[in-house]
Amino acid sequence: MRDLLRFWPDIRPRAWRYAVSILLALFSTGIGFLIPVLTGRAVDGPIADHDYRGLVLIALLVVAVGFAESLAQLIRRMITAGMTADWEVLWRRRLFSHLQRLDITHHDEWDSGQMLSRATNDLTQLRRFTAFGLPFLVITPCLVVLGGVILSFIQPVFVVLLVLMSLPTMAGVAWFNSRYKIAARAAQDTMGEVSTSVEESVQGIRVLLAFGRSPWAAQRFRLIVERLRGHELEKVRLDAWLFGAIMLLPQLALVAFAAVGAWGVVTGWATLGQTVAAITLMMYLRMPIEMFGFLLADALMAATAATRYWELMDLEPRITDPKAAEAAAVTSAAASSPDPATGVLEFDRVVFQHEDAETPLLAGVDLRIAPGETLALVGTTGTGKTAMTALVPRLFDVTEGAVRVDGHDVRDLALADLRSRMGVAFEEPILFSASVKENVAMGTQSVDGGTAIDENGVWEALEIAQAADFVRALPDGLDTEVGEQGLSLSGGQRQRIALARAVAGRPRFLVLDDPLSAVDVDTEDRVQERLRTVLAETTALIVAHRPSTAALADRVAVMDDGRILAVGGHEELLGTSAAYRNLMGVEV
Fold first, then answer.
1. Among 340, 415, 471, 503, which is 20 to 30 Å from 404 by CA?
2. What is the value of pTM for the model shown?
3. HEC sequence for 65-128
4. Are both 23 and 96 inside the same structural domain?
């Protein structure tokens, strides 16, 4: 329950409104307790005395009580609905922003389905609890106490019966609480696995169909769903025990009230009206008491959802901005005085090792790429090429050494400032569910989040990437929606749009990780011809697997086992490096 209390700072600014909604819920339910009292008065008074005018007056009072109850409920719902929806939006936006700040390592460690279920199912559960569960969980004990007070005025003997009924209820609640929490956590975690399985199957549908592995995926999904079913059935079993006991006790109390009341009427210490009032009041108490089991289960699921939410929110980004003053000083110095290192990309004795790895992926890499120079990285799989491209925009941090851009250690620059200086294109092109124009313009966002490119600039970037012709042929041209929810594009088309995004802002630094692997040779030649104009003005680091891409660079660095074996021009290395000749021979 402590994790639920951590939402208090968000609730506090509207705490008075929330308190009013709880008081209205208490009022709307509690005022109904007047009806049993009025009923008892009617039995002992107007009905016994045949006073029809008095009976009409009591009937009008009952109608007034019902009207007041309905009005209070209406006002409470109007107050609560918008307030709790705002909290849900706030928590969802906060979680999304936090996920954007987390570094790649965190995202690799967590299943996307688990993140998705926390951002959707868990927050919906929390909103429902704050809107309904928590207010009525608070007022239910208050209603029982209020009922006891009213019974003490009607006839104190009935209070003893109410207390005796409450004792086994509290024992059942304690038993339920200790077991339901475990089942609820298991069910919600398994729901995250369901989300992950569905996402993987949808994203990998081509592989599943091509290899005829759909039955395997279905069997795998069935096993997860069966586990979820087991956890949900355990919750239902626990619910059934608690709900059964809680629903039985009020029924037994009604029988006890009737029997004790009848004995009281016969022996003379209770009137018929008091007995009727007590039984009617017990019937009014039955609903909140029976609902208490549902409210308790809802509270435990909300507590589990809160724990899962804060598990994500408590993750600390490993890659963060430097202190504001330090970053501002670096940025100000760079802006106020021309630096001969502007446009230089440097790897200074760089060592990089993943936390869970036994050996470093990069072992003492030294490279200097001059302003306007293009350097290609070549090597076999697993030699650290992609790791080097990830270190430049600080998707990872070096283990030892330093990566410098414009003469500054990348760790001394604000992340937004650093990443605004470069364009990046990965081997696997990611397009968002947005128009072609929006996807391309995404690469031109400045530090403040604005875009500085018009439609002509988008077309120019598409021309460089040799994507303009097929974009013009799309149903809505630049406004055609692509990505997961949009028009289906080939792998090569997606790569070219991603490349256009990288070059659209004419960045100072360009980092390309084999961005044309899905493009045919003829198109690649035309893209490279146009890229030469961009590369002449940009410091570029390119991962290359084809001789034609390596030939595009001013220099080539041959990598093996996380180290630089040789650096030189394409033709030079063909003559001096056996490792380079082997790599190029494999491609040829």
1. 503
2. 0.76
3. HHHHHHHHHHHHHHHHHHHHHHHHHHHHHHHHHHHHHCCHHHHHHCCHHHHHHHHHHHHHHHHH
4. yes
